Amino acid sequence: MAIIVCGGSNLTSSPSRLIRAQHMIPCSSTVRRSALVITPARCISNLRRSFPSTFSVPLMRYKTGSRILPSASGLASGILRPLPISSVMLYRQLVPSAVGISGAARTVAVDMNRNIDNVVRCGAPSGRALPKLWNLRNLRPHMSRKYCTSLSMLAVVFSLHATGFPADPPKSERRVVIVVWDGMRPDFVSEQNTPALWKLARGGVIFRNHHAVYPSATMVNGTALVTGIYPGKNGIIANHVYRPEIDPHHAVDVELPPTVKKGDEVSRGKYISVPTIAELVQRARGRTVIAAAKSVGLLLDRQSDVGTAKNCVTLFAGNAGLRARSGAPDSIPAEIVPSITATLGPFPSGHLQQDAWTTKALTDCFWKDGVPALSVLWLGEPDLTQHESAPGSPASIAAIKSSDENLAAVLSALDQRDARGRTDVFVVSDHGFSTIERSVDLRKILNDAGFIAKTEFNDQPKPGEIMLAGNGGSVLFYVTGHDETVTRRLVEFLQQSDFAGVIFTKEPMEGTFALGQATIQNPHGPDVEMAFRWNDSKNKFGVPGMIDADWQRKAGEGTHVTLSRFDMHNILIAAGPDFRHGEVDDLPTGNTDLAPTILRVLGITAPQKMDGRILSEAVVNGEPATAGLKPETKTIEATKDFPAGRWRQSLRISRVGSTIYHDEGNGTFTPK
To answer: pTM (2 decimals)?
Structure first.
């Protein structure tokens, strides 16, 4: 947002002078996006006549000596207060306060040498340098002194990262860094496997009872992590979904750019229905950087407002096949990729190498000019390797050690910039992991049983046909026309199978849970969702957690997305100036808790209540929001009797206040 204060006939009586002023002050593009122009009423006609497109924004009229908005404190805090105006005091009262200089202002322009002293004396923070202070005469040395003097009432231009006046700018010195280890199980954190993480944990807080949201999938948990909202309300309910308004023939990958673009088109920009923390930080005039070695990065910062996202970057891996051919990831804005590849070389092909490249992009490129208010580094490991070789394999252990090395590089970069003392670091995983005991070809099984089940519609689907959206450890079933008879028959078939774990349904059905019990109720949700069965036996590497899974991977490989305790429990460690030292938090926590906690340490108020809670018990001098609260844990069950036996499923749920966490769920059919 550009705030332009101008007055006096010297400036506006001559359009040529104003044109030259616009060239001298680096705000013309910003003005075209949005601006608040404060000017005497007599000058408005000149402004509109000279700049019909640039000054198409509302102009605030004032008379010299009257009271206008905003004040210096208003610029810093977002609270608009009346301000007495006079030509003598204009500079002193419109230059932002110390908070504004350090946390909000990106450009301060002052027109004459003698006014720089006023700015420093009245507005600059004690002992701190102004971020940028320009004498307008120095911007264009060839301009005459007479011309510079004629700009005596063009007082202050601020280029802010906001389209309005946010109520809560972030704490000027505080920084937050989130490092995501995709698919990291808590039982693999050790001094031997993860020395950097182990050391960080000893100086911070270990959240020993941390949870993913269900479905325990990357895109679902990535979105929940940055919104603080359950999947059913934020709109991302699975990695793969069937949305006929997006693609009538196939289930779609929710994070791919064509899907996101089409999703925004059909939802009027609400593909993700709530803002992410990156967007909220941007609205509060903070800079953000997302660097993801996986395609989930596109969901972490929607950059829905070009004005607030200025100087903010999102780097993410595109479709694997396209990435392999192009040798580069995708980014917003797109033009940053060439400069990164010029520095780091092309995006490599190996999983570990991709993580290292992405880490260097963050520390060496995006942090070159300082650590922003919010940074997110999403590592693809150990998830990608565990999918190929199962948890506990030598390759998976090597991948975990690689992620630890990347964390060490991030911490070292903070140390080199003398930023550790003002940076809170979160290390979190999106979900846990399991080993596939059996791969289940559901399409074949259902078709053999008389259903019409497909993973692709070649033509217009007929009533009763079923679209399968496989997600590894869970499958979503979409019944064309929501045919009640077919849906009921499908549910009863699954209940009598030897692979179903927990079944959720859109409409109430005996022996099932409602989608809302899993916080995945949504207008675009499936008619039926099934999590596969699991057990706690060990794989060949001695790691517990075996599951049945869909047709996409074979037995012996790894995957997740069931309600197994090994999929639903993941890691969270937080360390930094806002967190207690050397403590263990045994209260239930979850990925939805990160967003409200991060906003709290940054001093930003969320625009709406989040489903997650602030982790007050772990914050230094935090309000005891959980004081006296005891976690409640209960197990719900659903059963259905058949002539051949009984179906029984259960779901264990923990609760702290109004926030719920899914511990585990399973089911079985017991023959008579």
So the answer is: 0.75
